[in-house]
Amino acid sequence: MITPALGAPAVSRGVRVGYGVGSFCTATFGAVPGLLLLYYMTNFLAVPAWLAGLVVAAPKVWDLVLNPLVGRWSDRTTSRLGPRRPWLLAGACTLPVAFFLVFAGPPLTGVPAALYVGACFMAAATGYALFEVPYKAMPAEMTSDYHERTSLLQWRMIFIGAATVISGILAPAIVNSEGDGGTLGSYRLMAATIAAVLLASMLGSFFGTARAPMTGAPEPDGGRLRDQITAARGNPAFMWLLALSCAQMTAVSMMLAAAPYFAAYTLGDPKATSTLFAALVGPMLLTMPVWVRLAKRLDKRGAMILAGLMFGVGTLAALATPAIGAWYAHVMLLLVGMGYAGVQLLQFSMLADVIAVDAEATGKRRAGVFTGLWTAIESGVASFGALVFGAILSLGGFLESEPDRPVEQPDSALTAVLVGQAAVPALIIFLSVLMTLKYRLRPADAPPPAASG
Question: Which residues cross the membrane (predicted)?
């Protein structure tokens, strides 16, 4: 057990709120494209499912290069705004515009439409990296107290829950406001609304963290990127935490990509996307304080195992939906949502611990390196989930279409939707539980943090 650091800088409520509001960006950009982009391409732009999945995944390859660089650059940044906040502002000037253009393109279909969406989505991913990598590095530098970081991140997760509810329900509701399944015009309206939410969130975090305390010494030279990647690879706790996070993110991204198809073809109601999403993320707002207490009682690893088991059991049980009905799907997603809330909180709290212990051991500011690698791989894995689901649809014989030329899907495609929504994600989540058993943070190996004052 890590003991709290004596004399750790206090994080004011205003800074906690200011930091937390940036999670509207994290949750919204994670939820809306993951929820709607694949469906938008296959059912409105007549893009084949395999190609649509590739379009969602391909721009994220760029993240594997960009995110570690952004992390390194932010570690080396010295300015009157601090090392991280200039990057938050750069992201705020980029992401909202690019996101709007993803859904507001020229009248293209098929391969040309896929190329256009892919280019705009790559620009959006770039803007997201500029904001998200430094943003995730900040908690480890705001305080050196083990449990204070969990409390700080509780605010982040509360905002993630609120943002996920708003974006996950609002975006599909806007899309479906002009009829089941929506229209091209309703998708554009949704894109403009979500772009405004992104902009307000990112600017709110930029201004809200102006008085955030900083711990850890700057490292202006930053070292060679290869050396810093080697340092991250040499941190067993970081590598195991990254591995289980990748498994969890793959499952979550598959379920997000599958949700509109699950609502339309398994439940027979495209508008159910909003209520399914509400069932998934609603518990995040209600159960977060419970997970904070469980993290103290069971330690973070024990609480993560419990959260993963709840997540996996609920996902697997959703396979029975066709035999029982829509109400059952919503109940199972409530169980999934409880586990998902714990997974999200503990994942980022454990990441902050790993970063803080590394800083205490080395005396260097390398939070950007760790979060850059983390965000790059996490982003790629998130898109990989959509790619896998697109491949499952193609193997099941799913037929692409346009709004004015609907098609009837074969039974094999309906089965593929259920497999991609429940069976495969459940197996991946149970694998992440086994990975959690390998996670070890060894604070005794690092020198204790010096008391301030």
Answer: 21-41, 47-66, 87-105, 111-131, 152-175, 187-207, 238-263, 275-292, 304-328, 334-357, 369-393, 413-434
